TrEMBL record:
One Pfam family matching this protein: Ysc84
Ranges where the Ysc84 actin-binding domain occurs: 84-203
InterPro entries named in the record: SH3_domain_YSC84-like, Ysc84_actin-binding
Protein name per its UniProtKB record: Ysc84 actin-binding domain-containing protein
Organism for this UniProt entry: Clonostachys solani
Entry's Gene Ontology molecular function annotations: phosphatidylinositol binding
Amino acid sequence: MTWENSHTTDLAVRCSSALQILQDVLKNRDAISKKDLEEAHGLVIFDVKGIAVGTGFAHGSGLVMARHAKGDWSLPSSVSRTYVGAGPSLGANLYSSARVLNKEAFEKCFIEQRWEYGMNLSAAAGPFGANVDVKGQSLIQHPTRSKGAYFGVTFGGTLFEENKELNAKFYGKEISAREILTGKIQVSEACKNEVRSLWDFLTSLEKQIENEPVQ
């Protein structure tokens, strides 16, 4: 059985946590390329705790941002992540992940909010972790930061769902993830200031690798 739970609850806190996760998991310049960012339609960042013996269930939470056609990034939407799978797995770890998604995966997971099914291979030892999805999230990249030791090969489904309560608390009104991610909202400067460090980091990252040749 697997149990996972996020330790962050407020969207402003998650923005700070997401920035730290990105700084940690993207220290390796090979973790993400210029081509990845150019093709990216979304970025989801989450922080979870897990323990597994055999098959099981996993749940965590974080935030998602959309990359607009003109290259800028949207405001964040709070999301929860649920995974249900079957297969051999063993270990315990704390891990954070930043997933860069292509158009198909982004729209399916965060606009339509449909289950994604596929085979997943995960391994972690100390600060290093890796995940491989086969016919799963349609990921471009999945860099991971972890603590502990874990190995698992499972077949199952993953669902990301918007957290309407946290979004409403952060933006001061009830609002859908679609409105947030497509930029169809007007928000206060206070909200923007909570996200500005994330935007600045992503802009800086793109500038750092702008001369990297497309692979």
